[in-house]
Amino acid sequence: MKKIYFLSISLLTCAFTRAQLTQSNHAPSVGDTYTVLDCNPSGVAPGASGAGATWNFATVTTNTAAYVYTASAVSSSMSTVYPNANVLVASSSSDNSYMKTSATGLYYYGGNIYVNPVSATLVYTAPAVSALYPMSLNTTSSSITGGSITATTPPANGTFSGTSSAIADGTGTLILPGTVTFSNVTRVVTSQNLTFTSSLVNGTVTQTNYEYFDPMLKGPIFAIRIASVATSFGAPTTQTIVLRTNYTPTSSTVSLPNLGEELSHVSVFPNPCSKMVNVNVDASGATLTLYDITGSRAGTFKLNNGSNKLDVSVYSAGCYIYTITGNNGKRVKTGKLTVIE
Q1: Pick from 203, 98, 192: which is nearest to 154 by CA?
Q2: Is 126 exposed, middle or buried (0-12, 13-18, 19+ CB in 10 A)?
Q3: What are the tens digits of pLDDT across the range 163-182?
Q4: Across-strand partners of 218?
Q5: For residues 206 and 115, what is the distance between their CA atoms, to the nearest angstrom?
Q6: How many CA atoms lie within 13 A of 237 on its CB side?
Q7: Cβ-proximal residues to 30 (8 Å cutoff; 6+ apart), any chain
Q8: DSSP string, 81-136
Q9: Cβ–Cβ < 8 Å for 241, 56
Q10: What are residue 28's DSSP bridge partners?
Q11: Is the separation of the CB atoms in 197 and 160 below 8 Å?
């Protein structure tokens, strides 16, 4: 794996504070897609909380299983089941999450759950909180949840109730295999404690997700998901799933060679600029995204192969961060763009 060149926000010459997580750089939006690889969970621990943490997962073993998650609009048929959700995030028909995203928060309205021996679909009438925006270190929120459960294993219908919480409990540096290092990471911990009752089986489900976010990338770049279930059928069981972002180009993501490596043949000029900026890239399907100094997404531009002229006259004068990503959402170049009057 080639080294990924990461431009630390602290090294930029214009003032750019450690970005908060907001709807624009954290919540799924229709059209978002990202790929993750399954990892061996043996010996993997979430690590420290607090400011200035270092989460070193360089020795994690990556398996071959890959999952492509896509955010899409909720279909008309499912909007009657999840009337409050406005986005579906799914890797397959059996792995989906119905969410509501807004400028103030992200909420989970249900989807599939599998914790051996329970396989079920949950529909929340009172959602679980996933984030409260803007989210920075120690931002926390909680909610009372409840709804219906339809289990396929064992087959049963019933109801559930419980609590959920979300907290940004740490900021710092994340190290992944291949010496892939991110220095501007926020860890979000979400937890649920549910009690379910059905005609056939009763029990409890506890879920804790540790997800590590780079404010310049959508979707967690690393995740540790721990779930346990106790039922009237037998002894409690616990499963741990570890996932990491996929940095390996595949046949479906070849629009930019050596994805993940900053490319010298990507150019952005003039800089500073007032009305138009030229972006040259020798691949199609790339995207340039602008972020303001709060970390909020200011604009997104689709790039064609060759020379592109982008109109920035609508933006206020100031310093912006731009990222150029391939068609799989992986960043290939990051830089500063100054807009002047």
Answers
A1: 203
A2: middle
A3: 999 999 999 999 888 767 88
A4: none
A5: 10
A6: 10
A7: 71, 72, 73, 87
A8: TSTT--EEEEEETTEEEEEEE-SSEEEEEEEEEEETTEEEEEEEEEEEEEEESSB-
A9: no
A10: none
A11: yes
- Number of neighbouring beta carbons within 10 Å of residue 271: 14
CA distance linking residue 51 with residue 21, whole number of Å: 15
Alpha-carbon distance 50 to 61, whole Å? 26
> Percentages helix, strand, coil for the chain, rounded to the nearest 5?
5, 60, 40
Question: Mind listing the pLDDT tens digit for each residue in 202-244?
Answer: 889 999 999 999 887 778 889 999 999 888 777 788 999 999 9
DSSP annotation of 233: T
Place of tokens 């006259």: 313
Q: What is the Cα–Cα distance from 262 to 137, expressed in whole angstroms?
A: 29
Give the Cα-Cα-Cα angle 15, 19, 23 (nearest 5 degrees): 135
CA dihedral 54, 185, 65, 225 (to 10 degrees): 80
- How many beta carbons lie within 10 A of that of residue 55, not counting itself? 21
The whole-model pTM stands at: 0.70
Supply the DSSP string of 23-85, one letter for each residue. Answer: HHHHS--TT-EEEEEEE--TT------EEEEEEE-TTPPEEEEEEEEEEEPPPHHHHTTSTT-
The DSSP output letter for 14 is S
Spatial distance between the Cα atoms of 30 and 72, rounded to a whole number of angstroms: 5
Instruction: Read off the pLDDT of residues 304-329 as tens digits, 9 standing for 90 and up.
Output: 888 889 988 888 887 787 888 776 66
d(CA 95, CA 79): 17
DSSP strand pairing (50-56 vs 155-176): parallel
Q: The tokens of 221 are what?
A: 């770049």
Q: Tell me the C-alpha distance between 11 and 18, whole Å.
A: 12
Q: Which amino acid type is present at position 253? A: T
3-state secondary structure of 12: coil
